[in-house]
Amino acid sequence: MMINNFFILLRQELVITAIIFILLFIKLGKDKSNESLLHIINVLLFVNLLIGFFPMLEGGLFNSMFATNKLVVLEKNILNFAFWIISLQSYAWLKTHKHVIEFYILLLSSLLGMFFLLSSDHLLMFYVGLEMSTIPLAAAANFDLTKRQSSEAALKLIISSAFSSSLLLLGISFLYGTTGTLILSDIGSHLSYNPLQIFAFILFISGFAFKISAVPFHLWTADVYEGAPIAVTAFLSVLSKSAVLFAFISILYKAFASLSSMWYLVLIVLSMATILIGNLFALRQENMKRFLAFSSIAQVGFILIGISGGSHQGSSSLIYFILIYVFSNLAAFGVLSLVSALTGKESIQDFKGFYKNNPTLSWVLTIALFSLAGVPPTAGFFGKLFLLMAGAAKGNYWIIAIAALNMVISFYYYLRVVKAIFMDENDQPIEKLSIPIYPKIAMFICIAGIILTGFLTVVYDYINSLSISL
Amino acid sequence: MNLSLLILLPIITAMAILFSNGLKQIRVIGLLGSIAQLGLASWLLKLYLNERAIGNTATYLFESNYPWFSALHINYHIGIDGISLAMILLTSLIVVAGILVSWTMDKLSKEYFFLLVLLSMGAYGFFISLDLFTLFFFLEVAVIPKFLLIGIWGSGNKQNSAMKLALMLMAGSALVFVGLMGIYYNTHTFDIVQITQIGISAGVQQFFFPFAFIGFGIFAALFPFHTWVPDGHASAPTAASMFLAGISMKLGGYGCLRIASLMPDAAHHYAWIIILLATIAIIYGAFATMMQTDLKYINAYSSISHCGFVILGIGMMNKTSINGAVIQMVSHGLMTALFFAAIGMIYSRTHTRMIAQLGGLLKAMPFISTVFVIAGLCSLGLPGFSGFVAEMTVFMGSWQNPNGVYRLATIISGASIVVTAVYILRATGKTIMGPISNEHALLGDATWNEKLAAVLLIAGIVIIGIAPFLLNALIGPGTDNIMLQVGKAITLK
């Protein structure tokens, strides 16, 4: 029975481990062409995604260090899905890359770390998962082997994540010292407004703020995003961020529920600063990757508002938003990675007159940007509004007004790109690009997701039925 | 009848446009789609009148209500009263006319017609919504097509105008959103019908009314948030100008009206500010128009002035004035669309819109010139056209308000008609009378599609002008219901 449980509960983690081993064996064998390798890998990842959708048990393992339930499985499925999409999109880039297998092994280990992070019910497991998900990324950020910027990005990533982990670790040790337990579901009952606990909480939240790049802990983001290869940037800005946010909300709502009146204030301040600074910096970016980096900082600000609502609605709107964010951000990154792989161009200027030769890619990018901006009928509209609605439940309407007006600022920089694509003149626009089949599939799925998620209410209802409350 | 057809039809048309090729196919599909819309709207009118004739006194007819996000109490609740039906008829008429005047649009025609149809979808959805969230959704749906239409197909400083318009309208919807949040968290519903029953306390109303009203006001060119209007209208391609002035600004007016009826206390409380701003808009718009030399700018600035009457009528809060506001919305929609169509026809032939470079067009293009004059005369309020009826009704309503200051505002607003007469007569006189330049003398007159578009719009203007009681009877029950809400608010005090 124990063995059965082990295989069923750890199913998703085991599949990923298996894929990693398969890749290692392939590496040991004789060289295969990149193309056939990528076919195999993409099929494996698709199988991995499908396995997550089979019904499964809820329960814990290893003295409840590891716990899983329907919500966690849903979150893992979202991550699996995002990873599959990124893999499909990087086809054009990886086709000519020398180290395809290593690339996948690194990112899969990171994904595995995220799974343990999401399933953790114990702060040690939580910490191990978090580290396991970040450290491989530093190596992956260095994967544009010929670019100096890429190794700079890797170094920045490892240093800043080490720093934030040490903050987290210090916070965890203080928590352990004052509560005497590391089990997340027990911590809550031992918390009071004891100063040391508050200090521990502040360290804890700072560590998190680093990982999700909330202002004032955002400084590493733009450089790392710019230097890393686009596939890794997409991975960082979508998967890492989503995984940490999932973990963040469950810890906040489960373990720190008794401090809610305090973290409410912290979150409001963080979110206001994050939205404003993220927006102001995004206004002036010329490189598409940096632009998306700052826009994703601003998105995190909106997410924090939703979390600050501290309600069932807050957590369901977060998961809903992240699902939509996966679709929209990956659609945008898909176009970027294709353009970058085929032409090497990454600046907004290069996208001037893009519509002339590449109408399909232009529409994909435009729809993705509209969804990020929160314009109906795209799903981003619903995602963002539900976050704000969840925040407004607290009755702080001025905050909501500021956030809503910030949506207008963000609207400007998204429209700036749209303007470049459709309206600006360019003597030498990017020539017609042929889209390989894998990126095509990925873009199609993302666009379908962006358009349909808002109208298929089942999605929201399902998420809502699983969400946790304070 | 299921009102969702009004949304479904544009979607089907847009899809058909996506899968067709070449200007000839696309424009035929666009035209068929828009004629079907007009047919649907007219049929709806017939059904509506039938229902009323057999004594159905429900506030909203043809209601249907489906849960959308049930956990958040968001429903797709639709239904119409006379006011929304008038707006739907206006929209469908302008869509047909807009498609007709874009008959030769050969630059990216697929995208162009697609966006026009999408814009009309947003407008229909907005007018039939009885749920504030759905209403808000459709309000924003209509913003993006405007941005792209102006930015890609516009003229002059089109990119700046497009950006300005999009950002200001987005700011408007952000304010509306805050207002909606206030309503939602105090009544726990977005449903207009339920909110009316539950009622919102006076304090809450006073806090949130400005957000929502100014938000919609930005769409309706409320002073001092009118600055997107001149640039946006002037830079837009002809059909987009028609849609902007004829449909899109009406979203704002209609929204203001709904908000005022949902929060009547606050509407009374802030009435003096609304009336003040409306009066400024009317006078300022009129004088600013006098200074313009570009035909499109003339029409755009005069739109600010004319939309001021809508806001004035809403601010005065009595049956006659609100009737006037609605009639003015319809009338202004038709008239400005006609004006822009005429200007577009002139511009496509002479390639200039500057009054100084035009003259004597009556000789070369008698039909277009006549249309131009009719639009002008309607704009200055000549009896027999809709403009007269609308403005007269607003004045009569405003005058009913015994407050001396309000009467002063009415007098000042009334005086603007003189200014209107000056600029309209000057513009039309210089453009169509006098000597014609040699290069313009050989230009041809309107083609069949342009004639058809103009005739449709003129028909609307004249029908309202001659038989205003028809429109009055249509919107009467709607305004009665609004007055009922207002009355409740007053008696509570």
Structure description:
The complex is a heterodimer of chains A (470) and B (493). With 470 residues, chain A is mostly helical. Chain A is 76% helix and 1% strand. Chain A has helices spanning 2-9, 11-28, 34-51, 70-89, 91-94, 100-119, 123-141, 148-179, 184-190, 195-211, 219-227, 230-254, 260-282, 288-308, 312-343, 354-357, 359-373, 379-392, 397-422, 437-452, 457-466, and strands at 59-61, 66-68. Chain A has a two-stranded antiparallel ribbon. In chain A, a hairpin with a 4-residue loop joins strand 1 (59-61) and strand 2. In chain A, helix 14 packs parallel to helix 18. Chain A is globular. Chain A starts with a helix and ends with a helix. With 493 residues, chain B is mainly alpha-helical. Chain B has one domain (5-492). Chain B is 78% helix and 3% strand. Chain B is built from 22 helices and two strands. Chain B has helices at 5-18, 22-53, 82-101, 109-128, 132-141, 143-153, 158-187, 192-198, 202-219, 228-235, 238-262, 264-269, 271-290, 295-316, 319-350, 361-364, 366-379, 386-399, 404-432, 438-441, 448-466, 468-492, and strands at residues 61-69, 74-80. In chain B, strands 1-2 form a two-stranded antiparallel ribbon. In chain B, a hairpin with a 4-residue loop joins strand 1 (61-69) and strand 2. In chain B, helix 4 (109-128) packs parallel to helix 11. The longest helix of chain B is centred in the N-terminal third of the chain and has 32 residues, at 22-53. Chain B starts with a helix and ends with a helix. The interface between A and B is medium-sized, with 34 and 35 residues.
